[in-house]
Design goal:
BirA Bifunctional Protein, domain 2; single chain; 251 residues; 6 helices; alpha/beta
Length: 251
């Protein structure tokens, strides 16, 4: 069972959280680089084979983190996204008090704001599995289990990363959790954005995730009332531990 440091960052600007993630990722990448260099310099080491290096890296003292936070209103565009999916000009966003960032995660345009739980796992996947597809499916499973606690049936939509409600019912498909990640030397960053009691009107000014003609929803909209966001965070933490077979250590 992996030990993961948990931090609730509260409400924090997108850029500040992004910079913090980059710092944690680079610390882990540096640890791996030092471990790999030490292995290569060991007398008698086989420099033509990556087996010893992989073994040493997987045992290296990298540190997992799981960050939860909320952001002030912000649109973020992934590295594969299209500007045409942003329906407001920069001037209009400024007037509405909405920040805007091009990011280095996967995916297209999405919104972050109050009432939304944003999760940023900084994990060394070499201590779990070296499979980005499996990692994304497990992030989805985490959210599906959280929704199940509220008797909401979350599902996957083929070819569309994230968690959906009624993805196979034409005209009723609605996304409740967007996802986009980055991975460097098997260290992850970015993650998921779960709409709890988010003001969904913000999504009217973008084509969410670049997917037209599909809706966005929230736990509050599905339930008909606003759930306690701290309770939802508790469920996120609990389901994270189960899905990733990890123990969260608060810091």
């Amino acid at each position: 069972m992996e030990r993961v440091i948990f931090q609730d960052l509260g409400r924090i600007s997108y850029k500040e959280a992004w910079d913090y993630q980059e710092k944690l990722l680079m610390q882990n990448v540096q640890v791996k680089s030092v471990a790999a260099a030490a292995n290569r310099n060991k007398p008698g080491s086989d420099q033509t084979s990556g087996e010893n290096e992989t073994t040493l890296i997987s045992a290296s003292p990298t540190q997992h983190y799981f960050l939860l936070c909320e952001h002030p209103p912000v649109y973020t565009l992934g590295k594969s996204g299209h500007e045409s999916n942003v329906l407001l000009t920069q001037e209009e966003m400024d007037k509405r008090g909405i920040a805007y960032y091009h990011t280095n995660r996967g995916g297209d345009i999405t919104f972050h704001g109050p009432g939304q739980i944003v999760g940023y796992p900084i994990l060394d996947l070499e201590k779990y599995y070296t499979d980005i597809g499996k990692y994304l499916r497990n992030l989805e499973e985490l959210i599906i289990q959280v929704l199940d606690y509220y008797h909401i049936k979350g599902e996957r939509s083929p070819g569309e990363t994230g968690v959906w409600i009624e993805p196979f019912v034409k005209g009723k498909e609605r996304k409740i959790c967007a996802m986009g990640v980055r991975c460097s030397r098997w260290i992850t960053m970015h993650g998921f954005a779960l709409n709890v009691n988010t003001d969904l009107n913000y999504f009217n000014h973008i084509i969410p995730c670049g997917i037209a003609d599909k809706q966005v929803t929230s736990i509050a909209r599905e339930l008909g009332y606003n759930p306690d966001i701290e309770e939802v965070k508790y469920q996120v933490k609990s389901c994270f531990e189960k899905v990733f077979d990890s123990s969260l250590i608060s810091e």
